[in-house]
Amino acid sequence: MTAAEAAGGSPHRTLITGVIGSDTHIVGTRILSMGLEKAGYKVVALGALTPAEEFVKAAIETDADAIMISSLYGQGELDCRGFRDLCVEAGIGGVLIYVGGNLVVGKQSWAEVEQRYLDMGFDRAFPPDTRLDGVLVALAADFSTRGQVEKEVG
Ligand code: B12
């Protein structure tokens, strides 16, 4: 049994990972990608310096189930604004979208930061130092309540 299955998740799911915008912080997305792959997911890793549109393009090309965006350098809010709309316009408005890393400039209340990203249309936002176990549980929970067909809903 894979770690994804142990967490209640389903294998055969495709996840897009990458670091959005002009952000070069590659380590977190690498570790996340390796962990997700080891857990049994198919991971398409776009790496650092990835424009928002590239995430959407890759998600369409690979028929992905979720997009896992990283942002570390403090410009996350600017880079992520309108991301859900991009997905909707591209016909994948129902795709699962997570964001994590160091999502704002400086230290701010996590509850407020999280709410801002949820308001932007992200399904979940993750604070710094997020561990893989929690991500696997979240993916399993979300995949169990969403069907494949919902990706096409806008
Ligand atoms: C290494 C580093 C750099 C290196 C990056 C090398 C590289 N190519 O990766 C260099 C020196 C180049 C660099 C540059 C800069 N950096 Co820097 N950097 C760091 C540092 C020290 C470590 C980042 C790291 O690798 N962490 C280790 C990984 C494993 O952790 P992680 O990225 O958080 O990822 C984990 C989790 O967060 C989670 N996760 C990550 N993404 C996602 C996504 C999802 C969906 C989920 C579920 C989970 C998840 O899973 C990962 C694995 O556990 C941090 C400080 C810190 N301690 O975090 C500053 C830091 C991120 N940098 C910072 C800054 C400001 C910069 C610069 C702007 C500095 C400058 N003025 O030039 C530039 C930006 C350059 C650019 N355009 O990107 C700030 C950002 C501040 C902010 N957000 O308000 C930080 C926080 C330092 C600080 N305290 O001020 N940096």
Descriptive notes:
It is a single chain. The protein is of the alpha/beta class and 154 residues long. Helices cover 41% and strands 16% of the residues. The protein has helices spanning 3-6, 27-38, 52-62, 76-80, 83-89, 110-119, 132-145; strands at 14-19, 42-45, 66-71, 96-101, 124-126. The protein has a five-stranded parallel β-sheet with strand order 2-1-3-4-5, with helices on both faces. The site of cobalamin (B12) has 27 residues, from helix 2, strand 3 and strand 4. Residues 22-29, 31-32, 68-70, 72-74, 98-102, 105-106, 126, 128, 130, 135 line the site of cobalamin (B12).
Task: Give the topology.
Layout: H1 3-6, E1 14-19, H2 27-38, E2 42-45, H3 52-62, E3 66-71, H4 76-80, H5 83-89, E4 96-101, H6 110-119, E5 124-126, H7 132-145
Parallel strand pairs: 1-2, 1-3, 3-4, 4-5
Bound molecules: cobalamin (B12).
Keyphrases for this structure?
154 residues; alpha/beta; Rossmann fold; five-stranded parallel beta sheet; 41% helix; globular; binds cobalamin
Brief digest:
This protein has 154 residues and is an alpha/beta fold.
